[in-house]
Write a structure and sequence with these properties.
single chain; 56% helix; globular
Length: 312
């Protein structure tokens, strides 16, 4: 399944280069947060079509800033009048009002990965990299909701439940590390990857009270969306780690964590994701208490007996 072609739900508009990548990426997050605030207030009143528009606009405000009602409608798979009505519902005077508001906050135009790749100087500004990665960690951890954290830790620390981990290819590295360490902390942790046959075989072990932890960002990989939908139908508890509450996966999960993935470079950052996974792992370990200490001590004995670790 990982080898399958991801489903591209949106595309980034390529615009002229800007001079300060760091400030623009900060502006993108601020604009997104402002839109989230308005959308959250009206979320219960949004139609399914408007929810789809919300996910697009919240994740890619540049599509509005530099597009037209028609181009945004095409990406959202709806009509231009629907885009205008959506802007009106958010309190803007039509599409032009929504566009003007975003452009006002974006002092520079947004660059695509392709354009950023043509500007290596910006990607090697160490001071900017330090600041943006620190911001990713701060934004990600600050966005953790107390109820979501409590619920997620309850589920992940309950050894009576199996835990299945589902990740997109783009986040497979951090997901694999989290899976490996969680298996040290507690038993019955499974990774959903490989062919449809292998994934189905792993899910054959699942019971309705088990847990699915799913990780994916916008432009969701289609196979992840499909497996997540199937697991939801099986009645498992779902914990989502995404790039926003209107991600298609987040909207179908009972618990959601949002990742900040701003970057000065070519690819979206995974620093915020790694920080969140580290925090969750530590919270689960502390919740489980002495059982974790015993498991670690037992494994340390095995490692030492087999001379698997070098001496210090």
């Amino acid at each position: 399944m990982r080898a399958g072609t991801p489903l591209s739900r949106t595309c980034r508009i390529q615009e002229p280069n800007y001079n300060d990548h760091y400030e623009v990426r900060k502006n993108v997050m601020n604009v997104t947060e402002n839109i989230f605030d308005r959308i959250e207030q009206l979320s219960a009143k949004l139609t399914p079509t408007e929810q789809r528009i919300a996910r697009l606009v919240s994740s890619y405000p540049e599509l509005v800033a530099f597009g037209t009602a028609a181009s945004v409608a095409k990406e959202a798979e709806t009509s231009a009048p629907s885009i205008v009505r959506f802007a009106d519902k958010l309190g803007y005077p039509g599409f032009s009002g929504l566009q003007a508001s975003i452009r006002h906050e974006l002092s520079n135009r947004i660059s695509s990965a392709y354009k950023r790749a043509r500007d290596p100087a910006a990607r090697h500004d160490l001071a900017a990299w330090i600041e943006i990665e620190m911001l990713n960690v701060k934004e990600t951890l600050s966005a953790i909701g107390e109820r979501d954290l409590e619920r997620a830790v309850d589920l992940l620390a309950d050894t009576e439940r199996r835990v299945f981990i589902l990740s997109s290819e783009q986040w497979a590295g951090p997901a694999t590390t989290f899976h490996d360490f969680l298996r040290i902390v507690r038993p019955r942790v499974y990774s959903l990857e490989g062919s449809p046959f292998r994934v189905s075989t792993e899910l054959g072990k699942a019971a309705p009270d088990d847990v699915l932890l799913v990780m994916d960002a916008q432009r969701n990989e289609s196979w992840v969306v499909d497996v997540h939908e199937m697991v939801c139908g099986m009645g498992l508890h779902t914990i989502a780690i995404t790039d926003g509450p209107h991600n298609v996966i987040a909207t179908r999960s009972e618990t959601n964590f949002r990742i900040s993935q701003a970057t000065c470079g070519l690819f979206d950052s995974k620093t915020g994701l790694t920080a969140l996974l580290n925090y969750l792992l530590d919270a689960v370990a502390k919740r489980m208490g002495e059982s974790v200490v015993s498991r670690l001590a037992h494994m340390e004995q095995i490692w030492s007996k087999q001379n698997l670790l070098g001496s210090v």
